[in-house]
Amino acid sequence: MDAYTVSAEFYDVLQARDERERADRLFASPARRARSGIIEVGAGSGLVTQVLARAATVPVHAIEPNPAMRTLLLSRLSTASNEQRSRVTVHPERVQELWPKDHAPPADLAVCSKVVATLDAGERRDTWAALARLVGPDGLLLIDPPPSAVPEGPRTQVLRQVAVGEDVYSGFISETPIHCATSGIGRIHLEYTYQVRRDGELLREEREEFDLWPVGSEQLRWELAAAGWAVCEPSPANRRSELLAARVIRDPQG
């Protein structure tokens, strides 16, 4: 089964409100300052994409390889205004596959929201290099840093409850640390459990599992630097350090 096949049904109903508020706070202002184009890596259901399209006056390239999440993204864009929808191009490829095939014009802003932790070390390095090719000189990259280390023990995060008609949707996320003694590279195993109740009775319970890859701040900075990025201090997007910001410091064609 493809990833997000289960979660796509529950993602927006349980998380959209909080994620939209977060996207407005973090990405609307940088999008308004973009002058040539915006690259969004891992657009998901389109919550951040919607904020970018509303705030920006430049083309937005929303990259989402997963079919289930891309369906949600396109459904959300179908209800946007003609003006906003005309600015957004949805790419089903990975960011590494966009160039040079599509010959996309350079962007001056790239956004990775809740993406980096889902990439292993090789995928991260490929992503930084691809974005350095797509973002013009002095272009800005905004990412939310992944966990810096594997947690000491398991923990659980409870998602909000949402009433839809007679039903109440809820869920929780179980995190389990996994340490690899051979490689020394650990990961966090997530199990999402979704529940639907009516009159207090459990009607359905669905589960889906994912892995996250922690990376320390020094390692992340080293990876970015190797691809031609320099981390900014503090983030131009917000000074509360919710985002890590970097700028292209060399011409990737040079």
From TrEMBL:
SUPFAM superfamilies (alphabetical) = S-adenosyl-L-methionine-dependent methyltransferases
Against InterPro entries, the record matches this protein to: Methyltransf_12 (IPR013217), SAM-dependent_MTases_sf (IPR029063)
Which parts of the sequence belong to the Methyltransferase type domain? Answer: 39-141
Entry keywords, A to Z:
Methyltransferase, Transferase
Q: Which Pfam families match?
A: Methyltransf_12
The reply on keyword DNA damage is no
Q: What is its EC number?
A: 2.1.-.-
Show the GO MF annotations.
methyltransferase activity
Q: What is this protein called?
A: Class I SAM-dependent methyltransferase
Origin organism is: Streptacidiphilus cavernicola
The lineage, from the top, is:
Bacteria, Bacillati, Actinomycetota, Actinomycetes, Kitasatosporales
